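Second attempt. The first submission of TetR family transcriptional regulator had a stray character pasted in from the spreadsheet, which I only caught after the job came back as garbage. Lesson logged: always re-copy from the clean sequence file. Corrected sequence (220 aa) follows.
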Amino acid sequence: MGRTLDAAAIADAAIALVDAHGVDALSMRRVGTELGVSGMALYRHLSDRDDLLRRMVARIASELPPVPAVDADWRETLRRLGLTAWIAFERHPWLVDLAVSPTRLMDATSTVGTETALQRLIDAGCSPDHAEEIFVAVAAQPIGIARIALSRAAERAVHYADATAPGPLTAAFRAQAFDAARGRRLLETALDALLDGVAASLTRTSGAITPGTPQRKESK
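This time the job returned cleanly.
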C-alpha cells in the first residue's frame, strides 16, 4: 500500500529529490512524478512552491536533536542551537543555499527554542534587545561557515585577488580544504569565542555571571 499523499509525504519526497539531484531538480512537477501523481495534485495539500520550501525546512528541523535541553543554561542553549543548525546543513548541504538567499531567510529554530534561548539570556542579565542581537549573531555563525564549507559555492575553486606570493602562514592557511570537518571546527571556535564575549559582558554588567554557568568547553 502506498503512502498517503499529504503535506509531510510531499516534503519528504522533495527532500529526498534534492538530496539526490540538487536544488535545481526541485519543482512541483518533479516531486509529483516521484510520488506517482501530477504536479497539480500537490496543490491540494500545498499553496505554492514557497509553502513546499517552508515545509521542507520544518521537516528537516523536526528530525534534529531537541533544542534547548531542559537542564541547559544560556550558554549551552546557544551553543546547541548553533551546532544543531550545523547538523542540518551537514546532512543537507543544499539547505543553506535554499533557505538563505537574497530573497529568502528561513528560521528553522522552533518557537519554543527561540523563546527559551531569549529568556535564558534575559535571566542571565541581558536586556531583551541585547538578547535578540546575541541570538541572531549565534544563528549567523553556522550559516556563514556552511556557505564556505558545505554549500555549492564551496565546490568551486578559490581565486585570490592578491596575486602576491603568500607568506608561510598564509600559504598554510590557503592549503587547507574548507571541508565539513574543518567547518565544524571553525564553527565551534567561532561559537566559543562569541559566547566567551557574551559571558565577559555579563560579568562586567552584573559583577558575576549567573550561578551554574559553565566556562568555555573544549571541543570533543
